[in-house]
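Q: Could you fold this chain for me?
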Amino acid sequence: MPVCITFSGEMETFMRVDLRRDTITLPTEEMKEAAFRAELGDSVYGEDSAQRKLEEYAAAKTGKEGALFVPSGTMGNLVSLLSHTGRGDEIIVEENAHIRTSETGGVGFVGGLMIKTVHGENGIPDPVDVERAIRRDDIHYPKTSLICVEIPHHRYGGIVPPIEALAAISGLARKRGVPVHMDGARIFNACVYLGVAVQELAVHADSVMISLSKGLGAPVGSVICGDSAFIERAKRHRKMLGGGMRQTGWLCACGLIALSDENIALLEKDHENARLLAEGIDTLEGVSVDIDKTHTNYVLAQVKSAGQVLQSLEQYGVFATLSKEDEIRFVTSREVSRDDIRYTVQCIAEILKNGPVSGLMGGSL
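A: Sure. Below is the predicted structure, expressed as structure tokens.
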């Protein structure tokens, strides 16, 4: 229940603002209705019509020959890696790539793959460094079988790397005969930021993983897109990992709406709110935000004693993530309003002015 807190002598209503992840985004009413109306069939036999429609739509939207529905982005990435490589091969990733840092080591544990990391200041490695990382043909070295890119980049605050760098990596990969996989969990955030169609990004990768459940609001699922041969290999690996589902129509009906142009356009509001938050807290003494790198729905705020500030924010009902010792990450979504953003800025200002607070959640005001 709301409680009252005091800001500069005035009573305000206690709110709950969840800025931890855009994964909190709830399905729309249209998605719920579509799910209940969906025709169902055994998807392993290819008999679920909603899944077929979703896969056909995703393939057409990305300009690929085929697509495959999977339960999660992590599975989608792993299925893609397995479908491009063999055990003992090496993949090249940016050093802070989600595939390396946040997918429980599946690339090594399940795939038996080695990882070669390359630094990337703006979320994507320098193409020259990527080419240097490709192994020469030598019996002493693992085979370089895949290059992975992440658009937008999670660890760098949702920044969107330049298309020119992506195109350069794609070009050198084709020259060297190495496929490219794109972790495009939030690729439509990048498309909205750049003002381009998704094909303009997907064309630079042999396979693309797209999450339906983050800012797009579907309850579950991702799709991986690529050529027909890749999709056939991916079906086998999805089954091996336990992703061979049955009546998927409930979920895929939501996924179709998630990928609609109208739904994707709503991401712009998330970006606007992130910008509002970034500009609001960057004016506060003791907080620094690189406004120029606030591209999508992420805000990275440099704050001294960030852990204490975060704990104090939680007392005011504002939830975010401690990404580094001196950095707090905020992620906007359609569950967060402009009023929520203004409230968050006000809370941070109050904390920085008066120091850490305690007891609010316990009702001791």
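A (continued): Confidence is low (pLDDT under 50) at residues 359-365.
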